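ok so for the tutorial part 2 we go from a plain amino acid sequence to predicted structure tokens. step 1 is just haveing the sequence, like this:
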Amino acid sequence: MVPSQDRPSAHDLRHAVPRSAHADWTPPPGRPDPIKLLLSAEDSRLVELLPLRSTLMAASAYAYLRGSAGMMAADLAHSPDIGVRVQASGDAHLSNFGIFATPERNVVFDLNDFDETLPAPYEWDLKRLAASVEVVLRAKSTTAKQRAKVVADVVGVYRRKVSEFAGWRALDIWYARIDVADLVGVMPKSARASMLRDVDRGRRKNHLGALNKLTAMTDGHRRFIEDPPILVPLRGTGEEMDEVRGVLDSYRLSLSDEHRVLFEKCTLLDVARRVGSAGTRCWVGLLEGPHHPAGDPLFLQVREAGPSVLEAYLGRSAVGHHGQRVVAGQRMIQMAGDIFLGYATAPVSGRHYYVRQLWDVKGSSDPSRMDLATLTRYAGLCAWVLARAHSRTGDAGLISGYLGKGQGFDRAIAEFARRYAAQNAADHAAVVQAIADGVLPATA
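step 2 — the prediction. this is what the tokens look like for a chain of 444 residues:
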């Protein structure tokens, strides 16, 4: 937050950065080649998973956008901003919002991916969200006029909610949330049944659901099933197993006292490698508590954490441990946290990890399958969540004063999204061609 004694006025900010300036997007001089950027990012990833990563990104323009946070960060680094930083998601596209359970077992809607979180200009999150809406709409039978209106409407939700939050007490902002009734109620009547089905699927995606879907009894012991390349059990001992055990032993120290006591009641039964984000190291551990005769499962996901893609343009994180960076950012942004969220350093390799529950009521809706009215409402909820996250961690009054009450900023971001979606389409086509030429590896 900008210190009060140095706080500029909204008028000063508008003079320095006119709101219309946000409409611009032209490739900056020396823009990184998207293929070279993908190849350079592969150095820290598991080689055997890289073909799958390329194949997934080539599936559609939206799939490419989802996987190219690093490319968009490089582009946003050349875009205008007013200098107000928030704890940004760093990857706030439509599919990184969803439902999950709070510690009180209420189901809420919020951001659900924090691998790239870092203090950053608020505009970066908003532009990524807007671009994702535009890209999804381009795959539907929509006109340019329809797309511009939807994106501007979504940005308008953000603008109005930040203005509203600017008048709230800090504690009230902290406790603000969207529950299931809000999520379903805001949808068009024709979409409510489908949204309820998504919520119901999310409720079933819990530890007992994981027990039935991911494991089976083998020789009297509960073990992960073989489902390569998605799920590959680690049998016996070895370097990977030692890495996971070392991380879990260290991770417990990052938990609060009461949650550490709960974790230490559980025994590790089995570990499997699971395809993680962008081909990074990711395992899932099956643990069992001591009390329930029909099984007392706990599934923990152990995910490697590297530098945020934003760090190359905003400087290194003040939190030196990348797992801790993810955990701290999630706790600042998300309305209710996972009680098993923690972090650790692998004792031998020195790699950074964060740990969280694998399935604890988790669900999402596919924006590519929504009609225009439903997508507009859904994206508006995502903008609401983003506004609350930014108001929690940034200067909502200053942002709101700059944005104003008119729709000029909304239209500017919509125009940016239109231009950036065209760039995204060209980059996606380059990835498809690179796969065809054998430059990027791909699965059959």
